[in-house]
Design goal:
By secondary structure, the protein is mostly helical. Helices cover 56% and strands 9% of the residues. Among the domains are: 146 residues; 131 residues, no CATH class. It is built from 15 helices and six strands. Helix 4 packs antiparallel against helix 5, helix 12 packs parallel to helix 14 and helix 13 runs parallel beside helix 15. The radius of gyration is 22 Å and the shape is globular. The protein starts with a helix and ends with a strand. About 8% of the residues have low confidence.
């Protein structure tokens, strides 16, 4: 808030984001809640884009003077621009801003961050505080981008050795933020493994991962769970603070989903996911709790937006990998209950893809083409790899172009799904 009031480039970036967010809330609450919007033709005038462009102009003109202040301002504007372009569906530009912020954060003098590089009691003030906070947030967005960009390799994933992912096994996490940061690293590693194995990278082949990777990461997931439980047992109250309860549920949801996906990843390919049904059922229950907290916070059926990923990639993965008919329909119910946008993830688009995967895999299974059990869906009926692109026409996303492959069968299949 201080920088929004005192620095023109930050003020214009914040105004652009505020206006586009209000427009999103108003339009998503209207008759076309199921249609993500494109900013290009919105009739509210050009105010959001004017503020956006003005912020760029001011940022380019700013004097180099105090390098620390310049770094803080540039990082903050990068973050606001990333939020703006994710919210408007301009994902290419959002990633451009994210890359710029990540690169800038890597070049920050380590002395600026040393006092706050751990989760201790040190509380630096002024510009250093802002740099620490925004740098950490940008790096979290960098880590999370792997969930929607299959050829993305987060900077921290390259720089962090596997042995450094977790603190000593005889300790506990000191805060939920620390637990979340360590889990983000594990989420990125597991997602990258799944993307690599399915050869979905459009940017070329990624280097092969070691054969022991699965066992190592499963061990780290187990260690994370122990550290997390120890932290909670040491007196963190979740009942008195609804926000704390929501974050605890989200972290348990993400951890349980990771464990289910990775432990099921083996020679049986898509059939192996059936073994993780109890974990998937637990995940859906946790996701329902988190979605209810979303709804309680924003109001019934009101749209929400966050630049971070939360429940959407988890629900999508459960929807396409768990073939239990009840679990799948519970996933669809949660996705369609409330319009949610998390970075490049949109709940309605994710629901449409899960719905189509279900239709394809259950075709010819049981009475009326609806499967009654997982066993009715043979391995050759199961979709192994799926990707999609939103196609914008005028003011709205008109359709989703999907590409997928079947397990044990060769060839790519493409379709267009209307929203």
């Amino acid at each position: 808030m201080f920088f929004s009031q005192t620095v023109p480039s930050v003020r214009h970036a914040a105004l652009a984001l505020a206006l586009i967010h209000r427009n999103y809330l108003d339009r998503a609450s209207g008759d076309r809640v199921h249609q993500p919007q494109s900013w290009k033709d919105w009739p509210l005038g050009k105010a959001p884009l004017l503020h956006y462009n003005r912020a760029i102009q001011l940022l380019l003109r700013q004097q180099s003077g105090d390098s620390t202040e310049t770094t803080a301002i540039t990082l903050l504007v990068c973050y606001l621009f990333t939020c703006f372009d994710h919210l408007t569906g301009n994902y290419v530009q959002a990633i451009t801003h994210l890359r710029g912020g990540v690169e800038l954060s890597r070049n920050i003098d380590k002395a600026i961050l040393n006092d706050n590089s751990t989760y201790g009691d040190a509380q630096p003030s002024g510009l250093r505080t802002l740099i620490c906070q925004v740098t950490r947030q940008i790096r979290r967005l960098d880590m999370q981008a792997v969930t929607f960009l299959v050829d993305w390799t987060p900077t921290d994933l390259q720089d962090t050795l596997i042995s450094q992912l977790l603190p000593p096994s005889d300790s506990a996490f000191r805060s939920l933020d620390q637990a979340a940061d360590h889990l983000q690293l594990l989420i990125a590693r597991v997602t990258r493994l799944l993307n690599t194995e399915q050869q979905l990278s459009p940017g070329g082949e990624m280097p092969p991962l070691p054969s022991s990777f699965k066992d190592i990461v499963l061990g780290q997931l187990e260690a994370w769970s122990g550290l997390f439980d120890s932290m909670l047992q040491r007196g963190l109250s979740t009942e008195a603070n609804p926000d704390t309860y929501r974050l605890v549920s989200l972290l348990r949801l993400q951890h349980t989903t990771l464990w289910a996906l990775l432990s099921s990843h083996g020679p049986g390919r898509e059939m192996d996911y059936d073994k993780s049904l109890p974990q998937f059922q637990r995940c859906v229950a946790l996701a329902s709790d988190v979605a209810a907290a979303h709804e309680q916070y924003s109001g019934p059926f009101k749209p929400t937006f966050t630049p971070e990923t939360g429940i959407l990639p988890v629900l999508y993965m459960i929807g396409v990998k768990c073939r239990h008919p009840v679990v799948r329909r519970d996933v669809l119910r949660i996705l369609r209950r409330q319009p949610i946008r998390e970075a490049a993830w949109d709940s309605i688009s994710a629901a449409r893809v899960v719905e189509r995967v279900t239709e394809i895999e259950e075709a010819g299974s049981g009475e009326g083409g609806i499967a009654q059990s997982m066993e009715q869906i043979a391995v050759w009926q199961r979709i192994e790899a799926m990707s999609w692109v939103e196609v914008v026409s005028g003011q709205f996303v008109a359709r989703l172009d999907i590409t997928y492959t079947f397990c044990t069968r060769e060839g790519l299949h493409t379709e267009s799904l209307m929203l």
